[in-house]
Specification:
By secondary structure, this protein is mostly helical. The chain folds into two domains: 154 residues, no CATH class; 228 residues, Orthogonal Bundle (Preprotein translocase SecY subunit). Helices cover 64% and strands 4% of the residues. The chain has 14 helices and three strands. The protein has a three-stranded antiparallel sheet, with helices on both faces. The protein is globular. It starts with 5 loop residues before the first helix and ends in an 11-residue tail after the last helix. This is Accessory Sec system protein translocase subunit SecY2. Keywords: Membrane, Transmembrane, Transmembrane helix. One of its GO terms (biological process) is protein transport. One of its GO terms (cellular component) is membrane. It comes from Streptococcus gallolyticus.
């Protein structure tokens, strides 16, 4: 019997996950005719099973990360229930906004609500697939989100067919060059670290002077990109739903421009969101409180900085500066092409190419790190009691 190693199993599992998501994007939601609905003029007829994607799950995760920032209490069943209810509410708003565009308010109970329930259930399936891939596959949640992004052009307005339809070689050349620059910048941000020299009690050999506390320049990896698209998408669904419920008596078109990535207002908001999210994830992942407590328990201290509150304040300021540097860099790399593309609105859709490439680069670096860890563990399987062929 053929026995596969862990890496092969993880890759195969992720392939199955991706195939499932692709299949979900090819399945129309039961068919509006199945419920007896009648399409409104200009309605979206491309409603598919996984139309909501990971958006509700990611929005609820981000909300609770912000609300619990600095809270060191473990996740309780009560908090988990609140997160699930938040996801349900967000999914309900988004699904109703989608379905009510295709049906009338008079068909709410007979058509819109059943369709919304199907979309909500499907969004929970996508969230489950993402968590399963993070646990048993490779590439984590990022792989699932990136698959959703590439399959759903609505989120980015990204259309590769423009590459062949238009012949603006100067713009395309600059875009490709900027994409390579973005990948280079992303690699630097991922690999660079700031080293804080520390003293370790009980260490009196030659390594005592070389002890340091490493802080990554970019703690957030590719997470700001994923959550930024989620934050941009949700207000559009909310305004659309409010517009429908008000009988289209309220015009939200101007407000929607702030959340449309192909508009200069939306591009600026997108860059601001990237910077803000990068700061949030830097402070969250940096976990100054835990670092200070670990140093105190081990007797370590930063040279020239008093232990305790002074160390905490110093590290907080350091993380803030690192977050600002990486956040501004990410915002410029992703946002400048979108701003410049406003000069040619037909090419603006392609300006998200650097963002997608940076997401892919970030995910690939994560995958490479995962593979390295698996190979390292396999190399020392006898020490860590790791089965060689499993």
């Amino acid at each position: 019997m053929l026995r596969l190693n862990l890496l092969t199993k993880k890759c195969f599992f992720s392939i199955v996950i991706i195939a499932t998501i692709i299949l979900g994007y090819q399945i129309p939601v039961a068919g509006l005719g199945f419920f007896g609905g009648h399409l409104e003029e200009g309605a979206d007829t491309s409603l598919v099973l996984f139309a909501l994607g990971l958006s509700p799950w990611m929005a609820s995760q981000l909300l609770w990360r912000v609300l619990t920032l600095g809270d060191r209490k473990p996740y309780t069943k009560k908090r988990q229930t609140k997160m699930q209810l938040t996801m349900l509410l967000i999914a309900l708003i988004q699904s109703l906004a989608m379905t009510l565009q295709s049906t009338s308010l008079g068909e709410f109970l007979s058509v819109s609500l059943p369709l919304s329930i199907i979309l909500i259930a499907a969004s929970y399936v996508v969230a489950l697939l993402a968590n399963l891939n993070a646990q048993y596959g490779i590439g984590g949640v990022t792989l699932v989100f990136l698959t959703n992004i590439l399959l759903s052009k609505e989120d980015l307005g990204f259309d590769l067919s423009l590459l062949t339809e238009r012949h603006n070689l100067v713009f395309l050349g600059l875009l490709v060059a900027w994409s390579f620059l973005s990948v280079f910048g992303m690699v630097i941000l991922e690999r660079a670290e700031y080293r804080v020299k520390i003293r370790r009690l009980g260490l009196n050999n030659d390594f005592a002077n070389d002890s340091y506390l490493p802080f990554k320049l970019n703690f957030s990896s590719g997470m700001p990109f994923m959550y930024a698209f989620t934050l941009l998408a949700f207000p559009k669904y909310l305004f659309t739903l409010l517009n429908i419920l008000s009988g289209k008596s309220i015009d939200f078109s101007n407000a929607l421009t702030y959340f449309t990535i192909n508009h200069w207002k939306g591009a600026l908001v997108y860059m601001a969101i990237l910077l803000s999210l990068n700061l949030i994830f830097t402070m969250f992942n940096g976990d100054v409180v835990n670092t200070v407590e670990t140093m105190r328990s081990q007797g370590d201290y930063i040279i020239g900085i008093a232990p305790g509150n002074d160390t905490k304040q110093y590290l907080t300021t350091l993380l803030w500066r690192l977050g600002m540097i990486s956040g501004i860099s990410i915002a410029l790399l992703a946002g400048l092409p979108i701003l410049l593309a406003q000069l040619d609105t037909e090419m603006a859709d392609l300006a998200t190419l650097p963002t997608i490439i940076m997401m892919i680069a970030s995910m690939m670096m994560t995958v490479i790190q995962e593979v390295s860890i698996i190979q390292l563990v396999r190399g020392y399987h006898q020490i860590v009691d790791y089965p060689e062929d499993s």
